[in-house]
């Protein structure tokens, strides 16, 4: 989640600066080149911090999650390797040409470089989210009892996993909204201070149009993510909706309420009839199972998984000499092996688990409901708010002569942190809602960790918090410094062009008031 503070702005700004430079190449107007360089400098600061925090995450797999890396590394490592070799190298190579190639490349050549940076940034997100999508919906793989590891059976299935694809388009759209709100807010601040007016007005026009399309797509694609969760992570969906009991189809959507996990009910709930059934199933006849029913199913799968675990131990000891009946038993119940591993929290050998421990393990499959319930609703509420903000500024930029009330400009400034809040809440819902699994239905989180003492974990965590805090202070200091400094590239060329333009057509100059 800390790493993702930097990712969305990188994803969105890379596209926005590519759009701005495209306008520069098409029109030859130096102000668009100045805009590209200015927003590009902020992109560069953020890009460096994103790389620093991202590389650290790669090391964590080996340091803190060693059994996870051993158990699923053959699958999870493939998209990460492709991301590094294909996308990150592309992005990192051409970002240097973007900053230092302005006077060494032709206009079109530099524009190609800028778009390659944008493509590389988004390709990085694609492969990372394919890896994460597999953790949510582990398709294209199977467990090998001889090696005691998950192995890939179909790279095509892993790559085109419906959860991964829905997560990718939803996540990058959220990044586009983040960048659009950032550009809009900074530009609004310039107008309030009556500084860099022409750059700010044009930046608002780009941000509002790009942001409106992105905000609309976030809502549409978020709905698609919800639909995919209905198939792959039923417990997550039930927890998000605080749906304790299975309702007759089509289920209602709980717009408001206070989930009570102990009582297994939602107090003061306000329901929207039929909405959840339509969102989750695209039908009026298909049921969405509730938490209580899913917990009972988890208990049944734990008992089935114990049979798989017993057969696995026989296969491990007797290998090829194992009876065919044992192999057949493992094949029948292997899909539930992960549920038996949930018992490892309570007992070393799942076969010796008591009824009470089986019930506890089944209850563990229910994540804590109220944080998911409210995180999801705040995220969705912010998503619709972004649509309203972007639609308003798009209207004012397109049909009101770039005149914006001061109250609206202040709203744009204070809205800057909101997309980061929404994005972090989205990741919280995705990852916390998956618990107790690292790989859903396959590998429990409790088994994934390295054998580290509490002291070792606390010491390294404190070190990361300290180091990242320093980086964050540096990031904020540099961003604020360069925002206050404003555009300092091509100042004389742009000023001369603006003066010549104003002399030819006085009504097109900066005489118009930027804010009402």
Automatic annotation (TrEMBL):
GO terms for cellular component: cytochrome complex; plasma membrane. One of its GO terms (biological process) is aerobic electron transport chain. It is found in: Cell inner membrane. Pfam families: Cyt_bd_oxida_I. GO terms for molecular function: electron transfer activity; heme binding; metal ion binding; oxidoreductase activity, acting on diphenols and related substances as donors, oxygen as acceptor. Keywords: Cell inner membrane, Cell membrane, Electron transport, Heme, Iron, Membrane, Metal-binding, Transmembrane, Transmembrane helix, Transport. It comes from the Bacteria. It is a multi-pass membrane protein. The chain crosses the membrane at residues 6-26, 38-55, 75-100, 112-135, 168-192, 204-222, 374-395, 407-430, 450-474. Belongs to the cytochrome ubiquinol oxidase subunit 1 family. PANTHER family: CYTOCHROME BD-I UBIQUINOL OXIDASE SUBUNIT 1, CYTOCHROME D UBIQUINOL OXIDASE. This is Putative transmembrane cytochrome D ubiquinol oxidase subunit I.
């Amino acid at each position: 989640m800390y790493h993702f503070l930097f990712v969305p702005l990188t994803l969105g700004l890379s596209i926005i600066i590519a759009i701005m430079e495209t306008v520069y190449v098409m029109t030859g107007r130096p102000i668009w080149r100045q805009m590209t360089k200015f927003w590009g400098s902020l992109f560069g600061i953020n890009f460096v911090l994103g790389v620093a925090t991202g590389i650290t995450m790669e090391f964590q797999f080996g340091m803190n999650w060693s059994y996870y890396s051993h158990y699923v590394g053959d699958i999870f490592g493939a998209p990460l390797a492709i991301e590094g070799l294909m996308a990150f190298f592309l992005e990192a190579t051409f970002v240097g040409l973007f900053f230092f190639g302005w006077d060494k490349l032709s206009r079109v050549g530099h524009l190609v470089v800028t778009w390659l940076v944008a493509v590389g940034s988004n390709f990085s997100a694609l492969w990372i989210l394919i890896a994460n999508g597999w953790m949510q919906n582990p398709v294209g793989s199977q467990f090998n009892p001889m090696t005691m590891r998950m192995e890939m059976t179909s790279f095509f299935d892993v790559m085109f996993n419906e959860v991964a694809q829905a997560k990718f388009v939803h996540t990058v759209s959220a990044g586009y909204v983040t960048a659009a709100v950032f550009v809009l807010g900074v530009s609004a601040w310039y107008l309030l201070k009556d500084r860099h007016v022409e750059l700010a007005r044009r930046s608002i026009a780009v941000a509002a149009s790009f942001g409106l399309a992105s905000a609309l797509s976030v809502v549409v694609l978020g709905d698609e993510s919800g639909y995919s969760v209905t198939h792959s992570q039923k417990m997550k969906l039930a927890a998000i909706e605080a749906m304790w009991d299975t309702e007759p189809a089509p289920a209602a959507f709980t717009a408001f309420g206070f989930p009570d996990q102990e009582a297994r009910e939602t107090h003061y709930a306000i329901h929207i009839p039929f909405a959840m059934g339509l969102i989750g199933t695209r039908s009026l006849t298909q049921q969405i199972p509730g938490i209580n029913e899913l917990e009972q199913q988890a208990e049944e799968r734990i008992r089935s998984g114990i049979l798989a675990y017993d057969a696995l131990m026989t296969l491990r000891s007797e290998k090829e000499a194992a009876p065919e009946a044992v192999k057949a038993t493992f094949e029948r119940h292997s899909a539930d092996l992960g549920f038996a591993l949930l018992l490892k929290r309570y007992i070393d050998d799942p076969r010796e688990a008591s009824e009470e421990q089986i019930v506890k393990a089944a209850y563990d499959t229910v994540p804590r409901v109220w944080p998911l319930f409210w995180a999801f609703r705040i995220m969705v509420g912010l998503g619709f708010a972004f649509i309203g903000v972007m639609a308003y500024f798009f209207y004012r930029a397109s049909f009101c002569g770039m005149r914006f009330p001061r109250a609206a400009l202040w709203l744009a400034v204070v809205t800057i942190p909101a997309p980061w809040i929404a994005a972090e809440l989205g990741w919280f819902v995705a990852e916390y809602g998956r618990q107790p699994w690292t790989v859903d239905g396959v590998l429990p989180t409790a088994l994934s960790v390295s054998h580290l003492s509490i002291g070792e974990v606390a010491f390294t965590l404190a070190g990361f918090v300290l180091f990242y805090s320093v980086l964050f202070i540096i990031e904020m200091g540099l961003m604020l410094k360069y925002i206050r400094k404003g555009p300092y590239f091509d100042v004389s060329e742009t000023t001369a062009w603006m003066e010549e333009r104003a002399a030819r057509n006085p009504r097109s100059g900066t005489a118009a008031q930027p804010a009402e």
